[in-house]
């Protein structure tokens, strides 16, 4: 790889999304995670129209002993700026925030974010089990002996919201139903058949109040996003989507340290992102929200300011989250229906950019009430059991 151009760099540059792409997704039995990283990276670079020699920054997490060193080596990159921040599902929004800051400050010109996982295939081939363990050291030692699983923590939080605000299982089920409806027109979605509220409620109980369809799917897949400084924009193959603002926040590790089960760290990251972008939640045309569980979508909508605290249950009714609803959410079907190979946050950015560019495809593209393409989108990732959050506001000219 040739070296990026040298010379003085501005400390106040605008940051654009130059390219986005998915690797093969869904059921991918004959590929390694490294191969999915490479496939997504090549496709994102092709989408940008830029040469790989411009890449001087690289961000990756979740693969390899020395991430992102191993993945960068596999891709043949020698970056001078790297990030391997790992905060669960929020990782990629946090990394995007870091990368945008680095590019704006002149510490990098073009940063590639890439992810890939064969979580589904690994279980099928018995290379791993379905159980997810964060270990039993540190603060977790006080919860692990009692069988306090990740899903149980989300379920406890959902139950608190139901108790405090009257949120119903039917309202939570609406989120899964609308996610599946959005996935119906997405050829890349793993599950596209329609479901009903009754289907969700009648499923096997996983952790009360979550039945199976309240929980994200398990799939294979990867994706990549290339962020660049504004001086690369004239060379792009497609119009840029701009990073307008971002925010990050962390909350707790142990449930006993969580001040309020009905408030996620998105309440902080979202506020910061909107303030820095200079926009209000009411101006957003579509939202891509991490949805490992239905409750995650509901409480994040509240915390981002799309509705008041406690009103999420009523907000998600009447098809508001559908592609043609009042606030299209997870327009690809999200982790509940489309793709969830692990840390899904980067997929949120890919879908947001595709929608803003107007390239989502027939019966899937979001339009504003006047028929024009969307102008503003927000992607908000959540990590752990509402332990971390990263929110990014994107816009087009």
UniProtKB/TrEMBL annotation:
Gene3D superfamilies: 3.40.47.10. The lineage of its organism: Bacteria, Bacillati, Actinomycetota, Actinomycetes, Kitasatosporales. This is Thiolase C-terminal domain-containing protein. Residues 247-396 form the Thiolase C-terminal domain. Signal peptide: none annotated.
């Amino acid at each position: 790889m040739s070296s990026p151009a040298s010379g003085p760099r501005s400390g106040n540059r605008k940051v654009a999304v130059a390219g986005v792409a998915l690797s093969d997704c869904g059921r991918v039995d004959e590929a390694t995670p490294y191969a999915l990283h490479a496939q997504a990276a090549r496709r994102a670079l092709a989408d940008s129209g830029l040469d790989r020699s411009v890449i001087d920054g690289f961000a990756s997490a979740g693969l390899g002993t020395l991430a992102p060193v191993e993945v960068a080596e596999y891709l043949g990159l020698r970056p001078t700026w790297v990030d391997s921040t790992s905060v669960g599902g929020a990782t990629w929004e946090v990394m995007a925030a870091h990368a945008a800051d680095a590019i704006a400050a002149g510490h990098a010109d073009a940063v590639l974010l890439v992810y890939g996982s064969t979580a589904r295939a690994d279980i099928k081939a018995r290379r791993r089990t379905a159980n997810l363990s964060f270990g039993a050291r540190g603060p977790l030692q006080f919860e692990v002996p009692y069988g306090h699983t990740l899903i149980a923590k989300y379920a406890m939080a959902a139950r608190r919201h139901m108790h405090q605000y009257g949120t119903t299982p039917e309202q939570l089920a609406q989120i899964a139903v609308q996610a599946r409806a959005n996935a119906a027109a997405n050829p890349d979605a793993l599950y596209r058949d329609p479901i009903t509220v009754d289907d969700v409620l009648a499923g096997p109980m996983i952790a009360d109040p979550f039945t199976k369809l309240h929980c994200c799917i398990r799939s294979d897949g990867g994706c990549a996003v290339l962020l660049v400084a504004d001086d690369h924009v004239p060379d792009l193959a497609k119009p840029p989507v701009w990073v307008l603002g971002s925010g990050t926040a962390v909350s707790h590790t142990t449930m006993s340290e969580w001040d309020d089960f009905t408030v996620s760290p998105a309440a902080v990251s979202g506020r910061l992102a909107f303030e820095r972008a200079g926009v209000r939640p009411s101006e957003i045309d579509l939202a891509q929200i991490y949805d490992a569980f239905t409750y995650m979508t509901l409480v994040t909508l509240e915390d981002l300011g799309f509705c008041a605290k406690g009103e999420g249950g009523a907000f998600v009714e009447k098809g508001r989250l559908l592609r043609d609803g009042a606030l299209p959410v997870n327009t690809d079907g999200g982790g509940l229906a489309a793709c969830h190979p692990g840390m899904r946050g980067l997929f949120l950015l890919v879908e947001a950019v595709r929608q803003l560019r107007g390239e989502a495809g027939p019966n899937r593209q979001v339009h504003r009430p006047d028929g024009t393409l969307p102008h503003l989108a927000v992607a908000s990732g959540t990590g752990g059991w509402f332990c971390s959050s990263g929110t990014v506001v994107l816009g087009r000219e």
